[in-house]
Design brief:
Elements (H helix, E strand, L loop, with lengths): L2 H20 L3 H11 L5 H25 L5 H24 L2 H28 L11
Length: 136
């Protein structure tokens, strides 16, 4: 197995674990890894990431649905409405210079990281919820 295939397999395993653990989309992990690890351009990495996520999404949704964790109506609404969004986003991505696309993706990752960190710190500082009184 050559280096690029080894990186791709490792990326797939890591992406699958993180998708199952945190419910993250593969793009957060796959796009940076494909650009840095495999040397793909930003647009190629984004397209490859979308294609690579198909099996992860199918298996992950099936597994979480079996556990009763999928809210069906919101999932359908988000899924159907995102079709138009992804078509528009792909058209925009194809018309933007690749270096600007990479910068925008980097800014998105930074904003998400800061927001998640703040949320985690806020929840850590929150006082524990009061227990309901015991029944007599």
């Amino acid at each position: 197995m050559d280096r690029s295939h080894l990186i791709a397999v490792t990326l797939g395993l890591a992406g699958g674990v993180l998708a199952g653990l945190f419910g993250i989309g593969g793009g957060l992990l796959f796009v940076p890894a494909l650009t840095i690890g495999l040397g793909l351009g930003q647009l190629d990495a984004e397209a490859t990431s979308l294609a690579a996520m198909l099996p992860v999404v199918i298996v992950g949704a099936w597994r979480q649905s079996r556990a009763g964790l999928v809210a069906g109506r919101p999932a359908i609404a988000i899924g159907l409405s995102s079709v138009g969004g992804v078509l528009a986003g792909a058209a925009i991505a194809e018309s933007v210079p690749e270096h600007l696309l990479a910068r925008g993706f980097g800014v998105l990752l930074l904003v998400l990281a800061v927001r998640l960190l703040r949320l985690g710190l806020r929840e850590r500082r929150a006082p524990p919820a009061a227990s309901p009184p015991a029944a007599s």
